[in-house]
C-alpha cells in the first residue's frame, strides 16, 4: 500500500477506536481565534493531535490542537480546534492529512473558517466574508503521485465553494440580521504579512481577503469530492500604503476573530442543521 494512504488509514483507525466506531457526517476546521465553536459541540470524544498517529502538532497562535467529536445541530461532527499551516514548516502532505482522514471517516461536507486580512478596502475589522472562490499562491498539495483512492488526477475547481451552501448561508445570515460579505480569499504562505505593494497587487488580481491557510484544505477536500463551505473573519485591514501607522499583529488578529466568533458560530450551526 502507498505509505501516504497507510498513514491516513492508521489515523482514521485510531480515531474510530476512540469514537467507538461512530463516523462524523460533517467536518469543521476552526481557524485562529475561532475555536469557540468547539464549545457549542456536545463533545463525546476530544483527541489531542499529539495522540493521533502521523498528525503534526499545532504550533500557531490561537490554535489549540484538538480533534473534537460530538453532536452539533443534531449532527455527529468532527471539528479541528486548530489547524496546520505550511508556514509552520510541515510539508503539504502533513498540513492536509486531517482533511484526508476526515474524508476517510466519511464526512459529506467540510466547513472551513479562518482569520484573514481585508484587502478589500470597503471591509471593516470584524466583518464576516463568505468565501466564494480563491486564488492559490501556496504550493498545490495535490502535486505528487495521485491518491487514486480518493480522487482523480485533475481536480475541477469551478465551484470549489459549494453554491448551494453559499446560498443557504446567505439566507441564514439575512434571517438572523447578520451582515455578511462575499468575496475571494487569497492564500499565501506567510508567515510574514503582506507588503503594501503585494496588497495592491492582490487587490488588482481580484482578491478581497488574504490569509495563510484554507486553500490547501479546500484543494484536498475537493480532490476527495467533499463539498466545501468557507468563511473568513476579517481581523485587520491590509495596508496599501507604506506610511500606514496601524501595523499587522498576531494578537490583534486573534482578538478580532474572538469578537466575531459568536456570529460565525450561529451561521455554522444553522448551516449544519440545514444539511
Ligand atoms: N494577512 C495574512 N494572513 C492574515 C492576515 C493578514 O493580514 N490577517 C489574519 N491572517
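-> sequence recovered:
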Amino acid at each position: 500500500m502507498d505509505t501516504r494512504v497507510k498513514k491516513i488509514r492508521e489515523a482514521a483507525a485510531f480515531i474510530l477506536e476512540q469514537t467507538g466506531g461512530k463516523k462524523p457526517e460533517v467536518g469543521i476546521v476552526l481557524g485562529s481565534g475561532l475555536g469557540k465553536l468547539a464549545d457549542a459541540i456536545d463533545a463525546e470524544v476530544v483527541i489531542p493531535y499529539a495522540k493521533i498517529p502521523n498528525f503534526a502538532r499545532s504550533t500557531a497562535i490561537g490554535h489549540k490542537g484538538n480533534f473534537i467529536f460530538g453532536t452539533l445541530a443534531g449532527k455527529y461532527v468532527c471539528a479541528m480546534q486548530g489547524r496546520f499551516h505550511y508556514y509552520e514548516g510541515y510539508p503539504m502532505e502533513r498540513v492536509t492529512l486531517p482533511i484526508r482522514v476526515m474524508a476517510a471517516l466519511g464526512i459529506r461536507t467540510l466547513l472551513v473558517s479562518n482569520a484573514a486580512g481585508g484587502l478589500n478596502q470597503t471591509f471593516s475589522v470584524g466583518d464576516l466574508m463568505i468565501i466564494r472562490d480563491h486564488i492559490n499562491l501556496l504550493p498545490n498539495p495535490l502535486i505528487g503521485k495521485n491518491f487514486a483512492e480518493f480522487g482523480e488526477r485533475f481536480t475541477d475547481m469551478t465551484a470549489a465553494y459549494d453554491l448551494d451552501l453559499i446560498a443557504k448561508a446567505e439566507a441564514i445570515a439575512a434571517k438572523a440580521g447578520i451582515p455578511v460579505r462575499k468575496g475571494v480569499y487569497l492564500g499565501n504562505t506567510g508567515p510574514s504579512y503582506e507588503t503594501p505593494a503585494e496588497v495592491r497587487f492582490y487587490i488588482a488580481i481580484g482578491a478581497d481577503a488574504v490569509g495563510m491557510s484554507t486553500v490547501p484544505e479546500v484543494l484536498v477536500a475537493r480532490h476527495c469530492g467533499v463539498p466545501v463551505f468557507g468563511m473568513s473573519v476579517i481581523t485587520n485591514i491590509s495596508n496599501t500604503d507604506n506610511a500606514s501607522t496601524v501595523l499587522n499583529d498576531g494578537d490583534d488578529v486573534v482578538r478580532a476573530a474572538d469578537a466575531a466568533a459568536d456570529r460565525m458560530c450561529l451561521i455554522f450551526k444553522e448551516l449544519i442543521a440545514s444539511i
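Residues 115-117, 190, 193-194, 210-212, 235-236, 238, 248, 253 surround hypoxanthine (CB under 6 Å).
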